[in-house]
Amino acid sequence: MVDMIRAPSGGITLQTCMKTVKIPEGMAIVPFLISANFVENVLPLHSTEFLKHLQQKWVISVDKQPLDEIRDYFGTEIAMYFSWLGHMTTALWFPALLGLS
Predict the structure, then answer these.
(1) Which residues of 69-79 are buried (b: 16+ CB within 10 A; e: fewer)?
(2) Which of UniProt's keywords are assigned here (predicted)?
(3) What is the extent of the structural domain holding 73?
(4) Contact 27/10 with Cβ under 8 angstroms?
């Protein structure tokens, strides 16, 4: 996913005290920085396997949201946000149906 982020129009210039790198417009940023020895290593911030599991359980399913798993992975604030969205969606069904009739 991070490999798909590309430089905007006009490109990007990155500078340290020892080195300057110009990334051309449209070039994938992370692979370019690795090949230019500007970045040594990239640490993924997410677990791909768990996100696939969460996608199967959450996005594709029509069951309740897996709020405990969301909390364990993303944190309490994000879980509370999705809990609130679920509550609001449920609470607005009746007014929405009245508005359609």
Answers:
(1) ebbebeeeeeb
(2) Membrane, Transmembrane, Transmembrane helix
(3) 48-100
(4) no
Coil/strand/helix, residue 12 = strand
Residue 1 has pLDDT above 70, yes or no: no
Do 64 and 90 lie in a common domain? yes
**Do the Cβ atoms of 32 and 23 come closer than 8 Å?**
yes
Segment 42-52, tens digit of pLDDT:
877 888 889 89
Tell me what percent of the residues of the chain surpass a pLDDT of 70. 99
CB 23 within 8 A of CB 12: yes
Scan for tokens 């364990």, then name that residue.
Answer: 72
Q: What is the pLDDT of residues 30-87, one digit of tens each?
A: 899 999 888 888 877 888 889 899 988 888 877 889 999 999 999 999 999 999 999 9
Q: Distance between CA atoms of 5 and 51, rounded to whole angstroms? A: 20
Q: Is residue 2 within 8 Å of residue 30, measured between CB atoms?
A: yes
Q: Is 55 in the same domain as 21?
A: no
